[in-house]
């Protein structure tokens, strides 16, 4: 595709094409970035809000401009999704650290810079240019909102790319914690810290539990069973990792299918029910309360 | 007419005032970034007066430069001109050591057609590549620079399609898209060597910057335009196995009469145990650089 349009003798073009290849060969769950087909010096990206911060679950889009002298000169970054940490459509200075202005170096890449940008989000802006210092709650609201729709920006071609990136990120990013549990995506998040995985699974459970609570008969059972289910999930989670990790090698963007989701949600509910029933049986055998439950059901 | 003059005068007066006020303002408002920008702008302006690699000039041009300068320097230049015929200046953009090394080395290959040397350095380059890989550098971030250097090396050897003339070498050394890439190649090689032998380099670096080896490489070796110190020269010379002679033109003098120009040979540390035969063939540096505080140029022996 792009290879035909560019002078491959141009070292910047050569380098950028290699970065594109590398980016596609080693996709990350934390970010996604691709150049426009019409101009490989113009990229779109999205990053996932870092975990354990008010940005968790947020999907933040932005654009990257690579200079003609790349990789000798640094790329410039601009966010498009309101986030409460950086102004949108304003160049972000990644070397804000006032005491030791870090030099850009050719051994860095778009990937390195995106990783740095993610790490930068929860840091204190210290009044740096282009930075915002919104309250945590405001940022959390923006994080939730960021998932709803990608920003509208630029040509239709660019918009298509933004939308694609958004779909990809939605399939990878677990939802904002403590909210939106109704739109739990059934897909198991890949390549994550075990604790993140656990929280997303407990969110799944919570969703299942909500549905279960609609039937009043097992109301009490659920209430008592839940605390015991959690450690069970924690133990189960790591074992599911090897299978999901094989997906990493796939270069193509995975398209998020709602039908898949529903299937997974039902599967999750089914599993939860089974677990609850099993635990209940155990519980009944082990304690004298059994008779009480028997009476109720 | 008169009006025009008045306007001019006013304009001047105003601009003087505005310069003054802006100077006062700027002290308060200038951020680190602004200062850095300004500094680099001045740097660029100054540097662009000289090409990356200049023409070969007789040593007398150096003498002319110090006509009204220190008598010690003039005396030393006289001593130098006994042994050296010419000088080739490089741009003072912080890359002068690497740039001088680049030109001097490729010129040597072009003139000597020393195939064994080319084969030897290729092996070293391959090892440098391995070093960077093992240090965790992503292949694509350095391979272009390596490829470009090897390309230049290949074309310095005559007899194949890509062979170049001496003129072409000069042109290429002045072409940013080649020259800067080769400089960056040397920076990668230097950085890799320092990190690989960090225990050896650590005391030197501590003395220079008070920082860690890693910080040093990230802030003083890999970024373009960062000046080179002894540490860089030792590392590059060791990594590529190329000896370098540096002559120091400074105002130091010794009491024992008769001024001499200090020089230092950076002889690559051979990793293998030096056997009798290896020890006997001590390499005489074919790269000679002239150091004046803050800058390196190329010297040509008589």
UniProtKB/TrEMBL annotation, chain A:
Region listing for Disordered, in residue ranges: 172-193, 231-256
UniProt keyword terms in alphabetical order: Membrane, Transmembrane, Transmembrane helix
Membrane spanning residue stretches: 263-280
Domain of life, source organism: Eukaryota
Xref: Pfam families: UQ_con
Keyword Transmembrane helix assigned: yes
SMART domains reported in the protein's UniProt record: UBCc (SM00212)
GO molecular function, one term: ubiquitin conjugating enzyme activity
Residue intervals of the UBC core domain: 11-166
GO biological process, one term: protein polyubiquitination
One CC-aspect GO term: nucleus
PANTHER family: UBIQUITIN-CONJUGATING ENZYME E2
Protein name: UBC core domain-containing protein
Species assigned in the record: Cucumis sativus (Cucumber)
From TrEMBL, chain B:
Gene3D superfamilies: Peptidase C65 Otubain, subdomain 1 (3.30.200.60), Peptidase C65 Otubain, subdomain 2 (1.20.1300.20)
Superkingdom of the source species: Eukaryota
GO terms under biological process: protein deubiquitination; proteolysis
Transmembrane intervals: none
A Pfam family annotated for this UniProt entry: Peptidase_C65
Record bears the keyword Glycoprotein: no
Active site per the UniProt annotation: 93, 96, 295
InterPro entries reported for this sequence: OTU_dom (IPR003323), Otubain (IPR016615), Papain-like_cys_pep_sf (IPR038765), Peptidase_C65_otubain (IPR019400), Peptidase_C65_otubain_sub1 (IPR042468), Peptidase_C65_otubain_sub2 (IPR042467)
UniProt GO MF annotations: cysteine-type deubiquitinase activity; ubiquitin binding
Site (Interacts with free ubiquitin) residue list: 234, 248, 250, 291, 296
Family assignment from sequence similarity: Belongs to the peptidase C65 family.
Name used for this protein in its record: Ubiquitin thioesterase
